[in-house]
Structure formats: C-alpha cells, structure tokens
Amino acid sequence: MTSWTPGWGDFPAPLLDFWTERHLCTLTTPRPDGRPHVVPVGVALDHDQECAWVITSGSSRKVRNLLAAGSAGALVAACAVDGARWSTLEGTATVLHDPTSVARACERYAARYRVPRDNPSRVAIRISVSRFTGSASLLEPASGG
Question: What is the pLDDT of residues 91-137, one digit of tens each?
C-alpha cells in the first residue's frame, strides 16, 4: 500500500483515471457509538472544488451518522476496488442541503455514473479529502515528459 496527499494540480494520472472510471465504492462513517457503518455508494471527485461528493437521501443512516458528529463533520473513508487495483480516500465529510451543493454533487455523480433519479429528499455529502491510499500502480509518481 502506498499513500498520496492531494495536491489537486499534480494528481497522478493512473489515480485520476481510476477515480473517473465507473466503480462502485463503499463509504465508512462512524456511528454515534463509534462502530463503523459501511455502505455501497457512488463517489465522484471534483477537481474544481478539491473534494469528493456522495449523493443520498437525507434520512439515510450515513447522513444521520454525519449529522450526529456535529457541524465540523466526521472522518470518513471511501474505497473502490477493481481486481488488484484499489484506492481509498480519507477525509472529513459534511452534509449539505443547499440546492447549489446538491446540484453540484448530482452533476459530478452523473459524470462518473449516470444521471441520478429524482429524489426530493436528496442531500450532498462533501468529503474534504486529506489522503489517498491504494495499490502502487495507481500512486506511482507522475513521470515528466
């Protein structure tokens, strides 16, 4: 396993490709009692806002876990696997209800997966990414030239 701390301007190409390809992910959030809650989700990177997005229903357990953590959010991990290639992003997640954030999250989701179905109770989970880990083939330093 290797790790990389994001410098959004010098993203390793194989890692960017991996997080752009369509892969189902898991999101791990902390329950109020500290136990991990792991669920399948779609995760979409947003280079312009230097974050990752998840869309979900506002009543979901993952949202309730994050809201219970307070306004500063909670530490989370999102992981994607494709055979021997895998990557986990770690960061702080907050729940956003405003229409602009939800629309941005849906736009990023549609770019990686598909246009999401209508959901009037949809919210956006914004992950401020602090680190990526993964298989060495995804985190090799970018070569010049």
Answer: 999 999 999 999 999 999 999 999 999 999 999 999 999 999 999 88
**For residue 144, pLDDT beyond 50:** no
Domain with residue 46: its CATH number is 2.30.110.10
Tokens of 100: 């602009």
CA distance 23 to 25: 6
Backbone φ and ψ of 138, nearest 5°: -90, -20
Q: Which residue has the tokens 């189902």?
A: 24
2 belongs to a structural domain: no
The sign of the CA dihedral 16, 140, 81, 28 is: negative
Question: What one-letter code names the amino acid at 62?
Answer: K
- The total domain count for the chain is 1
Tokens of 11: 């993203």
Give the domain range for residue 42.
Answer: 12-131
Helix (H, G, I), strand (E, B) or coil at 21: coil
Any domain includes 42: yes
Whole-model pTM: value is 0.92
Is 36 part of a structural domain of the chain? yes
